[in-house]
């Protein structure tokens, strides 16, 4: 049959990056650690992820509201007895319904609630799964045929993750549920696992059979764009902005699609390829520049830390963080638990002022020429300069062990002191050795300031 293809072109970058987000640091999954000089944030989901995150058990928002009320209290200073009382009240009201929905046991519900004592604090990024639907939603009976990933009738599971279609009615519900959460005090909206697929519904979707009888899935690209756009507009209309813009976070998963992510402020990224190995193998430099860093969509990226507690993998993580100015780590912090040198290196950067409004950041890929250069082909560097005569070099090695000499001329420091901030050792000349696929930090101080 005849058909028409409509194409469009979108120049990039689509908007400036809201620089304040570079100061964000997330509580890790396994413990309440985050860089000490950051604006801490966490994701709210946990207990309600499978118990209808937008429709709490039996319409009871009491525990949700309690978590919002204590989000600005550091986990180490919270009242455990008060938390236990709130947890147990919610548990006793809803455990039977939780079990009836085949969501788990009393023990699992208690564990899900306990999660929030130490892992939900600071700015709250509200977790959503736009492709999830539940038969327990009050809207389900009306819309399940329209929202289903398959042509109706189909046996309906209790909960479908990442499978819903995204017609206007589903988007309307999503925006309304986000709005309720925003009105109750969350700071931003997170969309999990952006994906173009939309199931195999041939009745009201665009799934289709080819001449060989093979079915091809829907594509929900423009629906995703509409979700992110309408969410940003809703947050702005509610006056809920962070660093001057609505906080919309897209989990880009396989790729940062500019028409979708251009309405976002942050990206959750690097989960793809996140199983094992050194970061230089998992992600090419071209992939960082074209996709992961969010340069083209005008977003700050929150990389998921997915690697083992092996020194070569952790060193490679720090190397790409420092090389690209890729500092806002989030999620899955298991490797950081026992490796204090990783924490220490990250804290040095943020304690120096990385992300502060009056501190200049010069990534090597940026528009402004960094005031420090070097002579090593596999070294990439982010320069951080304060106005008190101190500059920090964040150095990442993408290749083999190499000797690096730095040209400090453009700094304009007449008399410099060079220090390794990890060890306190002074250097006689602006020259260091950086191990294979590893990192280094160098502090430069103007003694004539």
Radius of gyration: 24 Å
CA(first)-CA(last) distance: 74 Å
Chain-averaged pLDDT: 86
Provide the spatial order of strands within the biggest beta sheet: 1-2-3-6-9-10-11
- Would you state the CATH class of the largest domain? Alpha Beta
Overall domain count: 2
Biggest beta-sheet profile: 7 strands, parallel
Low-confidence stretches are 46-54
Global structural class: alpha/beta
- What's the helix count? 11
- Percent of residues in helices comes to 25-40%
The CATH architecture of the largest domain can be given as: Alpha-Beta Barrel
Strand content: 15-25%
CATH topology of the largest domain: TIM Barrel
Q: How many runs of DSSP E, i.e. beta strands?
A: 20
Categorize the overall geometry: globular
List keywords for this structure.
single chain, 449 residues, alpha/beta, TIM Barrel, Immunoglobulin-like, seven-stranded parallel beta sheet, 20 strands
Would you kindly provide a written description of the structure presented here, covering whatever features stand out?
With 449 residues, the chain is of the alpha/beta class. It has two domains: 19-357, TIM Barrel (Alpha-Beta Barrel); 373-446, Immunoglobulin-like, CATH 2.60.40. The chain is built from eleven helices and 20 strands. The longest helix is centred in the first third of the chain and has 21 residues, at 80-100. Residues 46-54 have low confidence and may be disordered.
């Amino acid at each position: 049959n005849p058909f028409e293809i409509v194409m469009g072109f979108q120049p990039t970058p689509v908007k400036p990056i809201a620089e304040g987000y570079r100061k964000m640091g997330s509580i890790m999954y396994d413990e309440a650690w985050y860089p000490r000089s950051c604006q801490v944030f966490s994701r709210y989901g946990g207990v309600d992820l499978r118990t209808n995150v937008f429709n709490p058990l039996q319409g009871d928002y009491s525990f949700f509201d309690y978590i919002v009320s204590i989000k600005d209290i550091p986990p180490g200073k919270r009242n455990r007895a008060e938390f236990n009382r709130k947890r147990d009240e919610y548990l006793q009201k809803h455990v039977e319904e939780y079990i009836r929905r085949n969501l788990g046991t009393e023990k699992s519900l208690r564990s899900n609630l306990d999660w929030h004592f130490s892992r939900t604090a600071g700015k709250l990024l509200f977790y959503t799964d736009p492709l999830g639907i539940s038969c327990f939603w009050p809207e389900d009976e009306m819309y399940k045929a329209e929202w289903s990933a398959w042509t109706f009738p189909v046996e309906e599971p209790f909960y479908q993750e990442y499978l819903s279609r995204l017609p206007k009615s589903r988007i309307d519900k999503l925006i309304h549920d986000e709005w309720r959460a925003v009105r109750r005090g969350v700071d931003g909206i997170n969309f999990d696992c952006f994906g173009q697929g939309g199931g195999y519904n041939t009745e009201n979707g665009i799934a289709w059979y080819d001449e060989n009888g093979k079915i091809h899935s829907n594509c929900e690209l423009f629906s995703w764009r509409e979700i992110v756009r309408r969410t940003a507009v809703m947050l702005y209309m509610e006056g809920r902005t962070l660093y001057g813009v609505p906080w919309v976070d897209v989990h880009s998963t396989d790729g940062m699609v500019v028409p979708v992510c251009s309405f976002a402020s942050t990206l959750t990224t690097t989960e793809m390829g996140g199983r094992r190995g050194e970061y230089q193998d998992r992600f090419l430099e071209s992939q960082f520049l074209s996709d992961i860093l969010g340069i083209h969509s005008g977003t700050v990226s929150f990389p998921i830390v997915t690697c083992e507690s092996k020194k070569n993998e952790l060193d490679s993580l720090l190397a790409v963080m420092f090389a690209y100015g890729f500092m806002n780590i989030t999620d899955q912090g298991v490797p950081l638990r026992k490796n204090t040198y990783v924490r220490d290196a990250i804290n040095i950067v943020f304690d120096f002022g990385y992300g502060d409004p009056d501190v200049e950041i010069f990534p090597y890929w940026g528009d402004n020429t960094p005031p420090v250069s070097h002579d090593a082909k596999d070294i990439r560097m982010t320069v951080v300069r304060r106005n008190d005569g101190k500059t920090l070099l964040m150095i990442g090695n993408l290749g083999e062990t190499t000797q690096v000499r730095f040209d400090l001329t453009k700094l304009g420091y007449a008399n410099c002191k060079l220090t390794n901030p990890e060890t306190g050792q002074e250097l006689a000349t602006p020259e260091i050795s950086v191990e294979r696929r590893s990192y280094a930090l160098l502090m430069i101080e103007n003694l004539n300031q």
